[in-house]
Amino acid sequence: MAAARGRGAGVPPQDGGGGGGSGAAALSGAMAAEGPGSLFALSAAAVSRSMGALERDVWALPGHLLRGLLPLLSVFRLERAEGAARRAGLSTQPIWRKLWDDVMKTRPPNSENITCWRKKFLETFFSNVLHGVLDISSDWRLNDHHFSPLLHSSPHVSQLTLCNMLQGAVELTAEHNQKVLENLAGSLRILKFQRLLSSDQSIRRSLVLLLHRLIHHGSVSQVSMYSWPVPDTVLLVLILSMSAGFWRSGNALAYHSSPCGLCREDDKAQSRESAQERAERGHCGEREWSDGEKQRSPRAPEEAAAKVDGCEADAYLNSVLSRPRSPPLQNHLCEEASSKVPCDHTSVQGGSAPFCISEQLSCHPVLRKTRRRLKSAVGKKRRCLRRSRGPHTDPEDLYDFVFTVAREDNSERLYKNSATEGENTENWTSSSSGSPCTGHAGCKKRGASTGIFPLKAAHRFRSVSTLELFSIPLTGETCRTLSNLLSSWVSLENLVLSYNGLGANIFCILSGLRALSRHSDCHLRVVRVSDIFSHMPCMELVCCILNAFPQLHTLSVSFDLKNQLEGNGPEGNPSCGEVEIPESCLEQLEIRFPREPLHTAFLLPVLKASRSLQQLSLDSATLPCSQELGLLLEALKECNPNLNKLSFHDVNLAEHQKEVLLLLQDPGLQEITFSFCRLFESSTTEFLSEIIDTVKRNSSLKSLKLPGNRLGNHRLVALADIFSEDSSSSLCQLDVSSNCIKPDGLLEFTKKLEGHIQQRGGQIQFTHLRLFQNWLDQDAETAQEALRRLKAVCSVVSDSWDSSQAFADYISVM
């Protein structure tokens, strides 16, 4: 990174000639190694060495000349040649792809889906240079003295990952990279954090500047965090709160010793509004005073005292927010007082900016009075904060706001007792009011405790629309912070919580969602929750989520294992049936059961409330009786006429052949998936024939996915009859991955398919075949012939899988 930092920063040198002596020498050496070249090649090499002087003339060359010159250009010149190449009808994609192979030396994931290799190369190049894993002197095409790696590649970066000690954040906020940060503010859409470590205050300061510029004044719409086994609470809350658009006034966000320029106009506008409000209050005060003291309320002295106390409270609150980080609180009187104050997101008028400052205020002896006076103090907080900012605020400390949360986190450890998980479930599901956190026993006991910082003390900026947390343990304190943020995060559209060890804290998240759903301008439409252990039966959780947030379009609930404290099934949780589900907007529902029985009676309320349901996926469920699947199909037919995609994964359907055939002939379904469902485990050859005949008669079915069902060679060959001359099938996609298929069986299937296509005069709608994890490595030559002939018919997606891993499966189907 040190080698690239000089060029990776600031404005590149002025154009003064060629692409650099070292680059020209490397180019000449490369051509000499290839032997004597043609006159055109020698001329092109000479031109490429003098592009600084000849660039404008080169862009005017005819296409056939420009085509031979483009591969000889440096990255700097090649990027500038895009417009000329486009005008000449040329594509630079092959050149960028070769650059990727030569420089990155890896195959990118999903390379078949990459539509612009220029963007892919420059985006990855930016990240590698930023993190110091790529030496620009390693290739002559990168070693151009006109080329500033970070500056010139930053406009192409739409996704960036920061990791470890956040060295990338420090580099990007350095003064010499100011232009780079401005470019990222316009281009970056996805910001990811991966494997973060604890960092010091200077690094956090850089992170604050980065998030403020890229989120609050930029275009970042998605923040994702991955693999943080022991998260730093302060750092995590910092990222979450700034992603939600909360932070202190822009004056505190100094960029290289000067306030954020983009916040200045907002601050000026707020100052004008405050001056106008003060003038109006002064005018009203004079008019009231002229009416005489006799017309005042008898409670006027008390109200005046409340004003004084309110300013004292606000000064104290400001000191809490602004003083340096302190050791854990030891004031038991404060703890006792705070434990009596409930956390309520709805306490703010209008619900536009939820906050919870009860704990901080209750620590002040002057404020242990009436509720009216507490409201008076809170109402005047902002004005008094400005008065007291001078003696309490350290201009060098940007983290007071978050350190308040850290102190609260430490004090929270003093509380060890909480209600049982069963009580948490019963309290939340039986609550109809939906007040955030009130149903969580921990929230009831602890009140406005750790992680719930006073959002009213923060400035509200632009926020992201997608938040993803993968493999990051969330404590109760962090969950309450997240719940508090969610309650007013109206711009949020997608929320993904994956393997966070939520447990009973899921109720705190649900309370935040319930508060958010009451906002008329709420945009949340997708919620995905997955974890190792389920704290409650999946169907009960689905009902609770839809009850809290009926506006969802997509809901995914996935668990690996059942919590042993939960019980043996839905029968042990009678509250599941008691949750009333309002009419929802749900279009996609995915449930992964931790080997729970699939009871249609508990799924039925969800299906009835989701008349718009289009996609349903059921994973790892067990069928308690033979009639259960039939009941499900009847419910789907009655309640969900718009359903067009149905998926079963790891559900034993070996004894449900009748229901499988009913699904395959359903005219409403366009995509059906039976993945690892043991379809042919105890079936006869007649069952396969019935499947083929049913699919041949169904003109609505477009996609049939049968991975992991032990088709073997003979069943695959039989499936080719789906496309016979007498078939009315419109099947476009067939997935036969993980089905013990060998090369000779695939070749026979190909020949039979070719015969049917010929009989139909070449008219066939079949376009995609998936063959992952089959035994095609047992005879490479036969497999290559089969794949070559198949690719002339349809698009084939396969892999080079080692079939020796599946010896047990091979024995079972012999």
SS-based structural class? alpha/beta
Percent helix among the residues?
40-55%
Classify the beta-strand content into a percent band.
5-15%
- CA-based gyration radius: 33 Å
Count of helical segments? Answer: 34
State the strand order across the main sheet: 1-2-3-8-9-10-11-12-13-14-15-16-17-18-19
Q: What is the residue-mean pLDDT, rounded to a whole number?
A: 76
The shape is: flat
Largest sheet geometry:
15 strands, parallel
N-to-C CA distance: 57 Å
Instruction: Work out the number of β strands.
Output: 19
Poorly predicted runs: 1-24, 29-36, 292-436, 438-453, 566-577
Biased composition (Polar residues): 417-436
Biased composition (Low complexity): 1-14
Organism: Falco tinnunculus
Region (Disordered): 1-24, 271-307, 415-439
Give the structure's gist in a few sentences.
This protein has 814 residues and is of the alpha/beta class. The protein is built from 34 helices and 19 strands.
Descriptive terms for the model:
814 residues, alpha/beta, 15-stranded parallel sheet, two-stranded antiparallel sheet, disordered N terminus
Describe the structure.
By secondary structure, the chain is α/β, with parallel strands linked by helices. 45% of the residues lie in helices and 11% in strands. It has 34 helices and 19 strands. It has a 15-stranded parallel beta sheet with strand order 1-2-3-8-9-10-11-12-13-14-15-16-17-18-19. A two-stranded antiparallel sheet has the order 4-7. Helix 14 (233-243) packs parallel to helix 24, helix 16 (300-322) packs across helix 19 and helix 16 (300-322) crosses helix 20. The radius of gyration is 33 Å and the shape is flat. The protein starts with a helix and ends with a helix.
